[in-house]
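Sample pair:
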Amino acid sequence: MKQIVIREAGPLDMPRVLELIRELAVFEREPEAVEVTAAHLEKDGFGDRPAFKCFVAEVEGYVGGMALVYPRYSTWKGVVLHLEDLIVTESMRGIGLGVALLNRVVQYGAEKGVKRISWEVLDWNKPAIDFYKNKGALLLRDWDVVHLDELGIQNYLNNI
């Protein structure tokens, strides 16, 4: 079995991280939705006030997966961690990268003392749902994700 190395991503990893993000967008049937660039990721993740922490999974020096997290605040729980994406490239699924990345995210959350780690999963992504359930995650089916996109923000502001 090939050795999996999980490490914190650095600025030089961001082009590969962006490739993984684009691969996920294709999988989620929204290939045109990715607006972020490697330069955005570098600036946002590694400046004076990093907006996120990213972990990468390497096998023989090749980055085959990533997990991107950032802190949030729950009015009920306090500091929590949000897992924005956990991505394993299709050709490397099934060899343990996803488990290793999720393990690292949970360890990181525990190191930070967070009260909860949360993320979203598409309701049709049965392999991911089964994976998370098998790891003990709770799926809250009675909650809907709500967000305003850039146009929605502008429309909102134009109407107040």
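The CA atoms of residues 22 and 87 lie 10 Å apart.
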